[in-house]
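Why show two proteins at once? Because comparison is the fastest way to build intuition. When a single record is shown, students tend to memorize it. When two are placed side by side, the eye starts asking what differs. So, the first record is below.
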Amino acid sequence: MRPGFGQFKFPSPEYLRFAAQYGVKDILLNTPELEQSKPGVWSKKELIKLRLNIESYGLQLSAIENVPTHFYDHIMLGGEKSDQQKENMIENISNMADAGIPIFGYNWMPSHVWRTDPVTIRGGATATAFDYSIAKQIPNTHDREYTEKELWDNLENWIKIITPIAEKKNIKLGIHPCDPPVENLGGIPQLFRSFDSYKRLINIVDSPSNAIEFCQGTFSEMADASGEGIYEIIDYFSKRKKILYVHFRNVSGTVPKFNEEFINSGYVDMYRAMKIYHKNGFDSFFIDDHVPMTFNDTEWGHRGRAFANGYIQAMIESITKGSFDE
């Protein structure tokens, strides 16, 4: 278990120095803007340059999370460009693998992440929040309402196509849960909103390359109201080696209404959660993911991320070097 930094879009010298100075090795880039060799395909040369630039700071490019949604929206929705987008995405994933990038994280959310009005939390900090009763009033985001069967059929077809290619290329693919994990947003079913949906995913093709981008915050939003569900979910998938990396964040409440929190002030016992990862031999990295907006912080949240990442590093050390009750 080790700490990482994520949610960089532009791996600028300032960001990379920040990561190196705060003691991480693993870098996750989220939807980087890269030169395309053709529309919808990132250049292999640019991906290699990206990795080498990160390595020049003593860091490693451990994962890329997301391509632009328009690279594969027709795959998700069964649109007229689906076949061309499948060819392009096969090339994108192959290029990442050839460039030495071991993990690609993506999602099945053609309507992206949704939030409603933010809330004030500890000490006047601001955090994102979601209220399903408000979101239900928003009209369709696409041309029509889609069915769950359509999206599952499209997903299963894609998983069966891409998994053997990923295995051959030695790259692992993980799907992020739908955030927020509700039934439907803007006419689009949110497939990955439950424990059972992820059990279904990993059984489409049983392969290390068909895995999970484990956003603990979103899994915590979908857990049962008792608060116990998140620990069962972590245990189930970490035992099966299906977690590629972890967005280690906390929330207050579960769907239909919740808000994000400081890493140490939500409903999830983060120490208990990390003990489960450790017990089951999880050997990848944790990133801070979203953080509240604090006084005089930057838009990216340097202060909030430094706090969250320090918390992660201290917790990893306390669990891996100390003793605790199973």
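Second record. Ask yourself what differs from the first in the token line.
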Amino acid sequence: MKVVCLDAATLAGTDLSALKQFGTIDIYETTFSGETLERIKTADIVITNKVVITEHMMASCKHLKLICVAATGMNNIDLEAAMEHNITVKNVAGYSTDSVVQHTFSMLLYLMGSSCYYDRYVKEAQWCKSPIFTHLDRPFGEIRGKKWGIVGLGAIGQGVARVAEAFGAEVCYYSTSHQNHNDNYPSVGLSVLLETCDIISIHAPLNANTKGLIAQSELLQLKEGAFLLNLGRGGIVDEAALARIIDVKDINVGLDVLESEPMREDHPLLHVKNSDALYITPHIAWTSIQARERLVDAIVHNIQTFING
């Protein structure tokens, strides 16, 4: 079989040699839209993370039997067209849960502990001038006793809930589908969650129920001093509204995802004045070494199970 990997750069540093057992393999670090069809037109199996594969491409690929999505979300694949052309599409779920949970707390602790300020204070040699051994200009609190609201209580949300409880937080959640129920934690409405929680973390997919879920009115509902973390999908939080509100309201925000990735050079969040209250990472929550290794192992497993029928 011919295997084509379209965006191996998203798996950087991960051993892909196990794919060779299936036949010849073409590995491309990145693939732009105008290059996709030419690269996959003779492939039996295509591996893609974010490269879009359309109905037109599928119709032109006479050998294509399997599309392996190197992610959980499959919105870059025309699934109806795949069914029409008898092409199997397989994704990978659960590989990054621990990595995203860990990054959630990394973001929170960075913001809550004023790490940016204290790191700068020391490296600019301000500590050298201190008359005492410590520095208390930026007081910070503890997670214990805080109310933590989770938007999207799937596997990642539940993982965050367990760790939050270990820190001593009181956990509640909001179901974006209004269909999921968890007896371990109280379910609340979105307004209640926004108005009462000290910490809010988002672990939901982007869909009709979540697009623009946290817009200007919702941001204004947040408690003073609240922490808002989005590790779900860009587009759930209104970034333009956030850029305005974070400079006038006492909130702290961590984002690992944006609506358009990579970040635009003219993005309004690059120009906020209260930059210490904003922590942005470039969609890395899922990318621990172990998570990427699990992802590749799962792709290999998906191909094996497909071949074995």
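One difference worth noting in the second protein: The radius of gyration is 22 Å.
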